[in-house]
Give the backbone structure.
Amino acid sequence: MPQPDNMDHQDMIQQRLEAKLQAVVNTAVDGIITINVHGFIESVNPAAEQMFQYSAHELVGQNIKILMPSPYREQHDEYLEAYHRTGVAKIIGLGREAVGLRKDGTSFPVDLAVSEIKLDDYHGYTGVVRDISQRKKLEKEVLDISTSEQQRIGRDLHDGLGQELTGIALMAGVLATQLESKDLPEAQTASEIVELVNQAIQHTRALVHGLCPVILENDGLMLSLEHLADTVATRYPVKCRFICHLPLQFTDHHVATHLYYIAHEAIHNAVRHGNPQSIDITLEQLADDKARMSISDDGSGISADSRDPDGRGMFIMNYRAGIISGSLKVEHGDKGGTAVQCTFPYKSTPST
């Protein structure tokens, strides 16, 4: 009868289609991982095996957390449970940067896209992972070059134009005093010139601070964060403190600069959105060659919108944290406001 032949033909087509799809998965340059609703790995393709340095046999049946470093490992189950409970996706259906963990314990940056699969009685998730280590390295080099150029311009302004303007102000001040002692009408004009030059000096200093906000010393970050706290307390009706019980020295000025900008952005967001009465900037060394910078306030707290990873301020802080191989965490603080924490690699500088 023709019907069985037709069924056999359909089966052959289906088998060929499945074979093609499997070939696509197996030859993909990106890692492809499927997990069930409980977070356990069901399959990995060869690219994922190579990327994470595990064989498929070692990974299948393991919780996907095995491929995540802290603090993402501890947060994964919470994210998955919250999605099943609320249906609100924070990762699923969205591409984002994340951090992977190899079998040898080293971590590396990845682009991650997670999609949900629902077929008949099957429910699971597929993650497409791309190693972006080289891209991040190039981005860091470009950003470091830009930062170095900003610092050079800042030093030139400070050591060149700033010093020249200071000399002009001194000479104009002497001239104004001499003219005034002779009771000449030009003395008023000379005094006005002194005032204008002093204003130009203040503008130059502001430009230097904008180009090079962190003092170029090993303890420059501590001094700059303390200055930032004083500036915030002066400009806004906010009590702002810098807390650092044990000094942290930074030989890499680029790391210090990124941390400063993270603190600046977090404080700006707190003042603009949270209406706090107090803000604390804390710098502390942790165990396992890590350190943490925290910015906490007692304002109205963070809303769902302000925590949106697509927000520009949040994106910039996350990007800067990633550049220095750190991780950023934003949550409700102990004082009822917002707590921004950046944890990053840090090794103590031997004292000389």
Residues 2-131 form a domain with the Beta-Lactamase fold (CATH 3.30.450.20). The CA atoms of residues 62 and 98 lie 19 Å apart.
